[in-house]
Amino acid sequence: MHKGKGMKFVGDSRITADRKPNVPKDYSEYPGRTEAFWPNFLLKEWLVGAVFLVGFLCLTLAHPSPLEGMADPTNASYIPLPDWYFLFLYELLKYEFASGDYTLMGILVLPGIAFGALLLAPFLDKGPGRRPHQRPISVGMMLLALASVIWLTYESAANVDWESRAETNKPVPPGEQAEIDTEDPGYAVYENSCLSCHGDNLQGGAAGPSLIGIDKSAEEIATIATEGINSMPPDQFTGTDEELQQLVDFIVSVNEESGE
């Protein structure tokens, strides 16, 4: 049943009889200010995302993520570090006003204020302009947050010897792990003098390198144990000459087994 010009009665609804194709709105009257979401804007987003994805993949291939050895709860000398994107919070907890009795300030209050301010920035700065100088509150908060994160991250990373840390905590493949004879008399000497720095399995730690796979003679090992080397101070070994010989024989035997 037809009722009205260009209308059809369908049940209790009225719909147009003439179908029009979905034509994107003409934005030519606003040159350079806006454009159609599909396909213009979305295509640009995809292109930018693809460039960043390719760059990220190239970065991961050129600089693989450093792996460390298995976690050892008995190694009290190891100092764990968070991932790089949390280093600024890690550094913040070193300051007096955010550590000790004020830890809650460092882990909840200050980060909460910072991120809350960024969330409120669009509501605090409601100006119609889109240029940076027309939105001073939002831009100022953003620059302050960015500068703080960069500075705290730099301060945290600058005090870490990353190369030495990676060298002393290299993962040991299962096929290269040496079997440690804890019944060996030299292990008891090692346990008293060296375990705190070099780990219970000679795997090394934050304070000392691994003693597995070293290319040193028995005489050189004895000299290092008594006189030290690099960051290892002298007089770390305080046992008798007999115990020193047992320690050297133990370390040499472990390396001979791992090299087979």
From TrEMBL:
Keywords: Electron transport, Heme, Iron, Membrane, Metal-binding, Transmembrane, Transmembrane helix, Transport. It is found in: Membrane. One of its GO terms (molecular function) is oxidoreductase activity. Its main location: membrane. One of its GO terms (cellular component) is membrane. The chain crosses the membrane at residues 46-63, 102-124, 136-154. The main subunits of the menaquinol:cytochrome c complex are a Rieske-type iron-sulfur protein (QcrA), a cytochrome b (QcrB) and a cytochrome c (QcrC). Belongs to the cytochrome b family. This is Menaquinol:cytochrome c reductase cytochrome c subunit. The lineage of its organism: Bacteria, Bacillati, Bacillota, Bacilli, Bacillales.
